[in-house]
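Give me structure tokens for this 248-residue protein.
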Amino acid sequence: GAGPPRDPGEYEPPKGRILFYWGCGETVRSGQPRVLDFARSAPTEWGNFMQGRAPRERGAVARPGHSIWPNETDRRVFGRDASLAGEHRVTGDGVPADLKFAIGAAHDFMPAIALAQSGSPDDVVRLTWPAVGNARAYFINAMSGGEAADGATELVLWSSADVPEFGMGLIDYASPANVDQWLKDKVLLAPAVTQCAIPKGIFAKREGAMLRMIAYGPELNLAHPPRPSDPKIAWEPEWAVRVRTKST
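Here you go.
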């Protein structure tokens, strides 16, 4: 049976909680974790719980006069030894005939992140990686779900940020301005950093955890004809190309 009909005015808050930790280090920092208990927290508290930065602008968008790659119809996968370096030409209806440009080694596909981990979830988990070529910054987050002792659903979140930012929206292409700001905000790890520890025991009760890491690469901006050196001369480029790179 489905049970007695429920009074539409009767609200049953969800049972569960989120535990949020942040920062690289062997021990949990004071004041952590932040806990969001669904049964006790007002919905207004949910939005401020983990900050929520994301790229301010999404780069290229698929609208008339613009094209973006990869796109929904072309998500080709290339081998590890593939390269974007060299001459490129874009053709198509309405595309300027001279849309040709070169990409150099600094803006080529980024190398894979050779992330290594040691330690177990009930202890410190140490993450190390060799510096990724052309990386401007790094970011890592991890999450795991399970059931708490009281039977409630519990989600444990952690990020490498020095401030309470889980970074749901950060595992994506980002502009140099975004990356510079997030480095200044202590959200991202500097390019010289090649290790990070997940604090002892925060994932101890979990069956497993999902970890994600990103290395942000540089950006290349090209336009034809190039911008005149004299600011008084009107500049109306026939085409512009922006190339962004990341490794995840």
